[in-house]
Amino acid sequence: MVRYQYPFPIEWYDASDPFGNTSPPWRSPENPHRGADFNGGASGTAGTPVPAIAGGVVVYSDWYDGLGNVVTIHHPDGAFSGYCHLTDRSVSVGQEIARGVIVGTVGGTRTATQHYAPHLHLTMGSDSAGTRGGAARFDPIPYIAARLDASEGGTAAPERYAVLSADGRLWVKEPNPYANWVIQASNVTSFSLSGHRIGVVSGGTAYVKEGDLYAGWVQVSGAGGIKDIVLDGLRIGILGSDGVLNVKEGNLSTAWVQQSGGVKKADLAGNRIGIIGTNAVVSVKEGDLSAAWVGQGVADDISLSGNRIGKIVGGVAMVKEGDLWAGWTTMTGGTGALAIRLDGIRVGVNTTGGLLVKEGGLSAGWTNQANGVEQFSLSGDKIGILKGGLSIVKKGTLFDGWINQMPNTTRIEVAN
């Protein structure tokens, strides 16, 4: 996995104006925030050096009207990072640089006649244009957090592998596929992993632990009545057997906020929440927990990651990239698509003809990973599959080999 660093201490990040923010007076649904701003401490001072968040090759170093001086780097994992409003640029197109190399200095450049207060506008995309406001953009903060090098500040999210055995026990291992399994809970009917958190539904009650694999469980729901749990970052979602979705954000003791009734499936990604209703209608909201829902048509399955939304409609896989009003791109022909999962710049679709995964832009080519897959999971450079009850993973490129994990299992998840 490519390891990243924040360009500045995370405390300097302006959390009041996150990626995707549409709040007036500066933002709107037609003009959402397309990056992450660092304006605290020295990151708000013109002339402060700006380091590359990961190694790669410089593919853009020029003036871009509206963003001023911009540098874009293509990283080995396929992602692109952009550094905008710079006072000056210190790297050239074609130059190969390491993580931490200075690409320019903080500024407020915008147009020839307009300037912002000094700050770094950090962008990321699955293509170069995405770093300059194009549709293929995504939120830099969770992407970096999941790939953070602990030696560069902060605590790296652990690389975890989890399986549910046929007897209802949840097993988790870290930090690699060769580690020993640690049993986490029994009588488990649903589970989810995100960063240092693990969530389970056991006996109809939701529990979450945070920290290492030996941390204690915290009950986060009332007794009984919960059928599913999903975690992402600091958000926790629980879906009741009555179809009511509640989400909380922050520490484990914060209050729940009811999101919707009549929910069949839910997914969380960054500041987005997506649901499929019992009527098959898909809705997604972006922003805080009180944001309004935006209809996304109908679907049999959904998945969210960054600024991408994926769905299966009548056996056809479709993905949109950008804001909630962007158009859909058909990913598979025919009607054989069964399930879709998105993570970062990867798209996975399980079909009647095999598990297909692509990496990069939506027009990238597919690779057939395996046939006869019953369920699968994507996270970073890892893929987990369930085949004939055997849990199997691969780590690295799409062409690396598979590593057997545990027989007699009913579900697998990979996370970091």
From TrEMBL:
Record domain M23ase beta-sheet core: where: 32-124
Record-linked Pfam families: Peptidase_M23
Region (Disordered): 21-43
CDD domains associated with the record: M23_peptidase (cd12797)
InterPro entries: Cell_wall_metabolism_enzyme, Dup_hybrid_motif, M23ase_b-sheet_dom
Membrane-spanning parts: none
GO molecular function: metalloendopeptidase activity
Domain of life of the native organism: Bacteria
PANTHER family registered for this protein in UniProt: MUREIN HYDROLASE ACTIVATOR ENVC (PTHR21666:SF270), PEPTIDASE-RELATED (PTHR21666)
Protein name: M23ase beta-sheet core domain-containing protein
